[in-house]
């Protein structure tokens, strides 16, 4: 293996499927032009729900979000990409890893595409009355 091949293998890349893609706008920003963490969590939750809903064939709800760290600020104008990957399916629950990657606005001297946060979302399948149900009915 050459040095170049090793370097290419070390380039971080998103894991999972692109589930949501959006631009952080001025109306989403705080006073300093940064996007609040809660805004990102909201979109991560939407992506987890989309992914879980496909797997469960219907309605789902978030019951837990495991540890989350924010690695860098997100600026207005950044392209936000949210990736999801189903990790485990239980009787009524689905664990989904969610990653947020950004491309900063043009003109900023930051890595082209970087991960800003990740978390594992635990979702449960719900019936029409909002009660927990099996993910896959037999």
UniProtKB/TrEMBL annotation:
Highest taxon of the lineage: Bacteria
Keyword Hydrolase: yes
SUPFAM superfamilies: Thioesterase/thiol ester dehydrase-isomerase
Pfam families listed in its UniProt record: 4HBT
Domain HotDog ACOT-type: 14-129
Family under the similarity heading: Belongs to the acyl coenzyme A hydrolase family.
PANTHER family: ACYL COENZYME A THIOESTER HYDROLASE, ACYL-COA THIOESTER HYDROLASE YCIA
The protein, known as: Acyl-CoA thioesterase
Protein source organism: Halomonas casei
Lineage, broadest ranks: Bacteria, Pseudomonadati, Pseudomonadota, Gammaproteobacteria, Oceanospirillales
